[in-house]
Structure prediction request, 470 residues.
Amino acid sequence: MAGPRDYQVEGLVIRLADVGERDRVVTLFTRDEGKLTFIARGARRPGSSLGPCVQMLTRGRFQCVKRRALHLITQAAVVDSYSSLRANLWSTSCGLYLAELVDAATVEGSSNRTLYDLMVEALELANLTGGNDVLLRFFELRLLQCAGFCPSLRQCVSCGVELRPVENALSATLGGVLCPDCRRACSDARPLSVDALKVLRFWLANSLETSCRARLGPELATELEEHVHRFIACVIQRDLKSRAWLSRLRSEALLTGSNEAPTIAQQPGIE
Amino acid sequence: MSITAEPIARVMLALSKLPGIGPKSAQRLAYHLLDSPDMEIEELANSLLELKGGLSLCSICFNVADRNPCSICADTHRDAALLCVVERPSDIPPVERTGRFHGFYHVLHGSLNPARGIGPDALRIRELLPRVRSGAVTEVILATNPTVEGEATAMYIRQLVSPCGVRVTRLARGLPFGADIEYADDITLGQAIESRQGF
Prediction:
């Protein structure tokens, strides 16, 4: 980022930490520079014009000044605050999960425009539709792709043979699908149904909007969730705390009959 | 060998752990204390010792108090139908200073923060339900901070207490007094327009 002292970035707020009495350390996932950390002085002061712009999941344009330590955010304008997403506990929690996921899967200063566009698209869709499990799974799979860890879904990762429409196995450590002959050689390989393989391929080949129209039964949804999460855990090497929160919300919604946590089976137009 | 005498260095280290106090401020404060009369130092030391020892959480509202129940919960003149839910004990004095609220409080001691693993079990949410179900409360005012975490906490509590048949309200959001509309941000101004009232 050599150049003038003042510069502007567009980005999403993915992490916040309070410092001192009035300041806030803001981690932005920017469109052009990747993940960057700034300090927003006075952002917690009542009436601060920066305050509403440096809230989690806010997409904005930020005027910054280079400093020797953390760069400073001096002005900000909101591009999208995703107000509908924030008005619902489930969709807010989905958004916070996506933010934690992106934070965990990216490194400071490494640009990833595709991932940025994906995150913006996912938040916009969650803002419109409230978010669901398909959106989360699609995002997780595409995040793996953006980070260079996309599972190999066409050939066996061990012997290279073209996969047949039978029950194969998926190995997170080997990075893809194993044919029935090779699956015994890998201890972390888990059975992968034909339908699950088809859905994973479908998600990699289609847009988020198209993928969210997919009709998935509860068993298939659970199978896909387990596979994708095993991959995510293998790549980021830690548990995401907001994932446990999503599971809790889902189980509480089932207990109370609340509509705050829609599952795949509860989505309109889905079986 | 250290340039600063050990007792001063210890005070500086202790002071620098306080929020908003850097090493320079800690040094200034330590030397100021050194120049202060013995009586003042003694008074400060005693009040610091009493701070923890003499205080506990009120068993009803979970505010920090020097007696149990706290002075607010023990006040029989307050309106038992109103219950204001706040994030921290430090949120109570500003609400009290308005002079507009005469109900009781419930302190959560934080807000939900999924990314940091702070869930409902880490807060005083479970203790809120018996108070709401007691029958005396008719309105729960959710006065959590207008941040994403504060909103999530408010939505979660709304989900929990709504089946109890009480009115659930949220503090209004909008322009602060003395603000300039020209410099207001879009979110605040938008919320102020949405929450406008008859005049």
Chain A has two domains: 6-83, 132-266. The first helix of chain A runs from residue 83 to 86.
